[in-house]
Amino acid sequence: MNAVVLLIDDDRRIRNSLGRLLRVMSYDVVEAADWDAALELAAEHRPDVVVTDLHMPEHSGVDIARLLRSHPEFGHTPIIALTATPPRDDETISLFHSVLEKPCAAEDLQRALTEALQTHKH
Amino acid sequence: MTRNGTWTMGLPGCASFDSAAVLAPLSGVLYYLAASLDLMLREPDGILLLSPQHGVLAALFMTTRAERWWLIAAAVVPAHLLASWSTALPWWQLAWQALFSCGLATGVAMTLRLWLGQRNPFDSLREFSVYIVVAVIAGPALLTIFSPAVAPALLSGAPDLAIDRWQAETVASSLAMLTWGSCTYLALLPRPGWLQRRTPAQYAEALAIVIALYVCFRLTFVSDAENHAALYLFFVPLLWQSVRFGVDAAAMAVTLIATLAAAADRIPHSVRLHDAPQAAAIDLQTFLGVMTLMAVVIAIVVDERRRVAQAVSESDARYRAIVDSQTDFVCRSLPDTTLTFANAAICRYFGMPREQVLGTQWLQFVPEETRAELRQALSRATPENPIFMLKHPVQLPDGRTGWQEWVNTAIFDAQQRLVEFQGTGRDITALAQAEQALQKNDERLSLIAQAAGDVIYEWDIVRGELWSSSGDERSAGTPSVRHLNMESWGCCIHPSDRERVARDCRQALRGTAGTWESEYLYIGRDGDAPRWVRHRAYIIRDASGLAVRMIGAITDRSDRKNLEEANRTLERFARLAMLGQITASIAHEMNQPLGAIRYNAEAGLLFLNRGRYDKHEFQEIFDDICRDNRRATDLIGRLRELLHDHELRLDSVDMNDIINDVIKLLRIEVRQRHVHIDTECAELPTVLGDHGRLQQVLLNLILNGMDAMAALPETRRRIAIRTARVGATRIQVQVVDRGSGIDPATLPKIFDSFFTSKDHGMGLGLAIARSIVEAHGGRIWAKNNADGMGATLAFEIDSLGANVMLSSSGSSDRYGARLN
Fold first, then answer.
1. Binary contact (B600, A60; C-beta < 8 A)
2. Taking CA atoms, what residue in B is nearest to A58?
3. Of A2-11, B61-70, B369-378, B742-751, where does mean pLDDT reach its minimum?
4. CA B127 to CA B121: how far, in whole Å?
């Protein structure tokens, strides 16, 4: 069974293209455009890993990561951040399994996902 | 003792008779003549009327130093013997007479010398009264006892005879002292030029007096007719000559008359009160004595008065000579400025004789336009403040205008009425000209500085005073001195440069440098247009190295040629600065399409690698890539529009679209600054405008609003963007913030270049917004919100593109006009 990836990005075209890539990489992908949709889908699909954009209107990727970390069920679900302007403070970085600079190479994404999934399984 | 100011008498007579060779024979001759006269005057019956030799001898002693008296005595004794030999008296009696004469004369002379010192007994009534007491009364009365006529009678026990003789001898001696004594004394006084000073008219007058006296004498003493009136007639010529010719002439006249009267054959009835010859002689002597006294006393009084008057006139002349020799002006004038006195300096100054100057109102010398002002100044003098200064121009005789400075004193009478003005003044034309020249020089310097477009200044650091050729045309030609310190100078520098320039300058002043140079944005004192200036200065230090003065020039760098270039650069710079504020947003916007392209490409590659050739899938991938590429290209285009200063590119644009684009561009910014943006967009017609430029306007307005709310709590940071139609063709965009509003004083200035109320920023954003809106033929404004919360910045443009300026240089000019 394929691992489930929750992809959060407010930009539809990013969701389309990145979702397509992840699917080619043999992941099951659920796409959310914002905080509400993300929480709903997470509860429904119980993703193995979360990939999120950091800069979004209303609630940013950081807000979502904090929420998930404090969530009883998703506290240990690895989160991979994709961003053009990576955060510099350790507190924010520690929320994520890894922070990738956008746009990232497919291999890097693949490697990050693989690592995250292995960590999660242990 | 001074008389007539021409000679000085030390010890009377000393100068003339000091040498024995003169004194001895002179004494001898004079005594011989007097003694002979005495014998001649003796009546046959032995009645004595006048003893001239006593007077002559007393005068000789009085005019000679005591050490020389023995010379006189030595000459007198043989002279007496010689003169009296014919009387056939025994020799010892003759010798006694001679010794008695000498004794009487020395006694009188010595007493007078002791009493009067070296004063002339005929100088004043005081001295003359001493002479009367000593020489005329006491001397003869006391010493005659020792005469050869009295003493033997006294010794032989005949007191009546002795008294008669004493009386006769005393009165004869007294009369002689009054007449011959005074006459000889005065004649012996050295008086050079005494005769020469007389005019022919005076000689004629003297002659007339002599004739009159002679006629009176004939009528009284010689005529047979008893004429009482003639006696009084005597007094007329006598008084006349006393008044006119003084004590010398009076003494001479009375001596002559007394001598003639004594020589006359008889004593006229007019003076005679007694029949007895002895008593009648005394009557005559009394008459002569009174007459003499009167004439001499009057002469002395008149002389004294004359001398006082002369002294006064001399001192007046001396005073006037001092006043006239002044180069300063001295004058007195009536309250209406009519001159009553003017010294020679004033007459010379105006080239007029004194008579013409006096009686002229000095205001006539003053140019007409100044007179009213001076009259006012004169009227301000009061008894409490009588002294005042005047400085005014005067019309010189050669047509030039001179300047005078006066110190005037107003004189008031007891009723506090203005009586006259006294003034001393001086010519200050040269001074005034020098002042004018200096002022002209200042003006010239100032004009040169203006022509050069520079401000030249000298700053006295110690006193904090600034002289500068103000480079601004409103005060052309009038260099001004103002007070300046670092703070007030700092106000002329744009806030963005102020700190740096002030720090540099302070450092230079504290150090040892001789010069200082800087470039900065100069904004002037009262909201003048800002200019780039270059400031060069010399620092002048005192001996200890302390900077005391700074002399420098501020040169305008923003000349016309560089202006547009500078403006364009500034505008570009401002745009870059603005974009710099939103780099996060731009990076994000750019990354989105680039990211999407990348992911699609990677996905396609993976499909190929895994041997999956789903045509439909590939179709979608390439479509997406193309669309995202367009999206990125669009964004780059918009950024180029924002960055490049091309001419206005007019298209039909939808203002609501522009607003959405801008909000998108600001997304990250908005989130980071925790600002909430609400939009209330009405249905709008498309407008003819430049998409990029209008974006720029909105960006600037929104960024300004965000800045205004930076200090507010996050929940209150809200910006509302509203669009509306105004009238048929115009659209309006409002950006409303909820900040602290704009200070009403600066409200009209916020769209000016380089105006900023922020700590950072250049004050260009809103200026650029205005220039763009105006280039679109629209207008832009700002107002504080009615509820007191924040401000609204709004602009309006015509949807049909009315009034659009198609040339970018037009916009640049307008902008430039403000910059400069």
1. no
2. B671
3. B742-751
4. 5
- Distance between CA atoms of B307 and B239, rounded to whole angstroms? 19
First to last CA, chain A: 17
Say if CB B785 and CB B495 are below 8 A apart.
Answer: no
Q: What is the pLDDT of residues B587-646, one digit of tens each?
A: 777 888 888 998 999 899 888 888 877 888 889 899 999 999 998 888 887 777 766 666
The region that residue B131 occupies, defined by phi over 0 for left and psi between -120 and 50 for alpha, beta otherwise, is: alpha
Nearest beta carbon to residue A85 from set B587, B598, B599: B587
Residue B472 confidence class, pLDDT cut points 50, 70, 90:
very low
B60: helix, coil or strand?
helix
pLDDT at B774: 84
Sequence-ordered list of residues with C-beta below 8 angstroms from that of B524, at least 6 positions apart, any chain: B472, B492, B530
> Which 3 state secondary structure label does DSSP give B183?
helix
- Write down all domains in chain A, each with its CATH number in brackets: 4-121 (3.40.50.2300)
Say if the Cβ atoms of A57 and B600 lie within 8 Å. Answer: no
C-alpha atoms less than 13 angstroms from C-alpha of B533 in its C-beta half-sphere = 27
Residues of B within 8 A of A18 (CB-CB) are 595-596, 599
Q: Which domains does chain B have, with CATH numbers?
A: 13-190 (1.10.1760), 196-319 (no CATH), 326-427 (3.30.450.20), 435-557 (3.30.450.20), 646-819 (3.30.565.10)
ipTM, interface predicted TM-score of the complex: 0.90
Q: What pLDDT shows up at residue B447?
A: 64
State how far the Cα of B198 lies from the Cα of B400, in Å rounded to an integer.
Answer: 50
Contacts of B772 (CB under 8 A, 6+ apart): B690, B693, B694, B696, B697, B811
3-state secondary structure of A83: strand
Residue with tokens 């190479």: A105
Query: Is residue B475 very low, low, confident or very high in pLDDT (cuts 50, 70, 90)?
Result: very low
- State in Å, rounded, how far the first CA of chain B is from the last one: 92
**pLDDT tens per residue, range B334-393:** 999 999 988 888 888 888 888 888 888 998 889 888 899 899 888 888 888 888 888 899
What distance in Å separates the CA atoms of residue A22 and residue A15, rounded to the nearest whole number? 10
Q: In whole angstroms, what is the distance from residue B515 CA to residue B103 CA?
A: 104
- What is the structure's pLDDT at B131? 93
Helix (H, G, I), strand (E, B) or coil at B492: coil
Judge whether B206 and B248 are in contact, CB under 8 Å.
no
Q: Which residue from A11, A21, A24 is facing B592, i.e. has the nearest CB?
A: A11
Looking up tokens 């990354």 gives B591
DSSP-assigned letter for residue B583: H
